[in-house]
Amino acid sequence: MNGRSAPLVARAHPFTPLVLAAAIVVLAFALPAPRGPMALYAATAALVALAGAPRALITGAIVCLPLWFFLFILHVALRGGDGLDAALAQGARLGAIATASAALLRSFRPSRFLDAMAVRGLSFHAAYLIVATLQSLPRLRARAHAIQEAQRARGLRLRGAPLGRLRALVPLTLPLMLGSLAEVDDRAMALETRGVAARRRTPLAPPSWSGWDVLACSAAAAALLLALGWRVVSP
Description:
The chain is an all-alpha fold. The protein has two domains: 8-108 and 208-233, no CATH class; 122-193, no CATH class. Helices cover 76% and strands 0% of the residues. It has nine helices and no strands. The protein has helices at 8-11, 15-30, 35-50, 54-77, 84-107, 110-119, 124-153, 162-193, 211-233. Helix 2 packs antiparallel against helix 3 and helix 2 packs parallel to helix 9 (211-233). The radius of gyration is 22 Å and the shape is flat.
């Protein structure tokens, strides 16, 4: 797949999804409820779909479904709740943040992000900390799934009575912890041999800013200024 046929989310500058996700988090609480968060959720869903990451919409909805249910019960079904507007506002905030976060995780490319940080002359340690944090959950999930399948092939029962499931946690958790510690040690040695302590690093393929990146970041900055200004001047 060449660069032009790739989705827009894959061709965007590595900083653009981070800026948009951070702006969406702030706007979710700065915009007036309930119409503001609802409009933000709709705009986020449209932006994610146009950027070529429709699976992020499904992921965000799956994450928010139980939260939406409890918000409806808390604010609408039970007496003393704040009403449907409060449920819609909080649900839209959660939906927008969850969708933007899922799109960020799906569009994140560690190598391009590290090159972008190197171009700006920023600290490699800070960049690697961000990369390791964003990659920790998918790596732990994949490792846990592999350990679970291996233990199941050896005859470990993962279903049944609650006591049996509790006993199965030890042969699942211990290999996960030991494997994670071993991976940290291997990564530390690999980074040391590759000169991670060097002050100046040369990017392999420095990403460039496109017109869409500038437009998206400018629109996010303008929306933030307008929303925060409205918060200041509104009674």
